[in-house]
């Protein structure tokens, strides 16, 4: 950790990821859209002063505001630009030399009541080298002129953002005869003089002219692609313009994926309360541990001198042990949440942009597949989708999704479509698992509901408090939670139809199918009626849970994307359990699921269907078109996978313990990746060890997996305490939880009021 302002890193250092993606040192750069650039620069006046290279930068900058602009201005003259819709003025002023004329123009902004530009970008030198044939006298005069201009720039820097652009290197072999005197040696001498004078001028001054030196690094990599050896290729000057936009706009617009130049957000009231709570928990746990240790020493087994019998230590009361477990859980959770905050809210660790290459995605996939196959064991039972198999399924899917996120593979459409199937498969398992439980057990009690809701939502609620994010931000948990409640409501509403009842009368099966048809009708209606959907979830208190950026559109989009797959999971569970009850499938160890002929036919159809979906996904033209078809066709590949995995008896009888281990903590892995493996709320990559990308990934991954595993254990321990089986105690706990959320809502309202 070097400290300092990330703006300095953005302006002075970085590297290329691939050929065109620029990665600043230690922070992330946001790619501004036209609308964002206009919102940032509304009512602003920007001035570029200098030679033809600055003119290039000027054009790239205004194209961020209006991409339709053409480079048709006078080459050796001033060029104005105005966007009347946002009241933005951007001017280029032709001053190819640092001389008296440039000084007079800059001085005019420092005098009287003349309106000062909000952003001033200055730079020139190559003309001085060219006109004076690279003489030492010209360099000396350049130093004198900058020395006279520097105080004026410092004065302007008090109220405006002033940038001095250093001269880019040239590609000497391509220079025309009239420019041969412009050598990189001369350019370095001019740059050195400018930096020394500007730095000495601002040494004792709070205001500072910012030296834009990063363009030199960019030019070193790309100047050989120049058309004339002097001017940068378009992609390089566009990068410079985007850096300039990030330097000025990030602190105004605060983009999630633009960590450069963004100050650390202040602690909110709720975060401060959470910090106090975790601190007290840690102190409380330490005190209780010390008391117990002292009691243990006093009550340690020893021989009674009179009777000669061994005394047994006193047994602690259950209340104390429960309290100790509670404090221990919150103590560990407090330390873990501190790590979360330091990783993704404090400007302590570096963050970098993602950059996708095929090798960065597919090579890790091969690694984990080899590991998964290596750790193969026999299953305890050989039923379709048995516990070990579903854990394995969740595990390898989660690992693939993690690799997808860290590699930035969402930019590659075929991979994106297959990952969408994996997310749908999670929801399919939600429908399958919960339907099977309610159908077989017939347990619609409050305890079961509270246990599931607590395990799903505990970590997300804590992160919403600590990381100051809305509930809908962690979209997958709201999605699974809502679908669980829909499944519960569908089966719990009168008449409650369960397997035991249906076995007595086959008509109950038709009753259940009728319920499922009603559910499908409701899903279909809501998916094509955005207005009705938004009205339902815009009512308080649902709006507090499902709004993101002031509306529920994101929630509607996420729900709609996989709207049918939970229904498909429920229907599959119903058909499978009905076939199992009637002994129409064989689930013995090593036995095929059906007769050999039927099994072979189904296996062939499944493989063809699986490959057909992959071919279709690979031929998709755009995300919008593919997302429209995805809800209806994703089930094809899911069912194909289930049949391929379960029809052959020898395949059904084994599982990967490696994948199954990850499957048991898949939810924690999915949520924790947001802040302690990725960064900037999944937009970037966390860098604990700069300069060593592979080593950094290994270390951050190890910590990330350990934390996810620990949180899983904490959640399970707390679930036993917070959600007891006794109904009267459970009711009291629910009242306490209702009070907690009421308090949270009260403090949240106070926060919102103070922000406005």
Automatic annotation (TrEMBL):
Keywords: Acyltransferase, Glycoprotein, Golgi apparatus, Membrane, Transferase, Transmembrane, Transmembrane helix. One of its GO terms (cellular component) is Golgi membrane. Pfam families: Cas1_AcylT (PF07779), NXPE4_C (PF24536). This is N-acetylneuraminate (7)9-O-acetyltransferase. Its main location: Golgi. Residues 253-734 form the Cas1p 10 TM acyl transferase domain. The keyword Transferase applies. The gene is Casd1. One of its GO terms (biological process) is carbohydrate metabolic process. It comes from Chaetorhynchus papuensis. GO terms for molecular function: N-acetylneuraminate 9-O-acetyltransferase activity. Belongs to the PC-esterase family. CASD1 subfamily. Residues 22-72 form the NXPE C-terminal domain. The chain crosses the membrane at residues 269-291, 355-375, 396-417, 452-468, 474-494, 506-526, 561-579, 600-617, 629-647, 659-679, 685-709. The keyword Membrane applies. InterPro entries: Cas1_AcylTrans_dom, NXPE4_C. PANTHER family: N-ACETYLNEURAMINATE 9-O-ACETYLTRANSFERASE (PTHR13533). It comes from the Eukaryota. It is an enzyme of class 2 (transferase). It is a multi-pass membrane protein. Its EC number is 2.3.1.45.
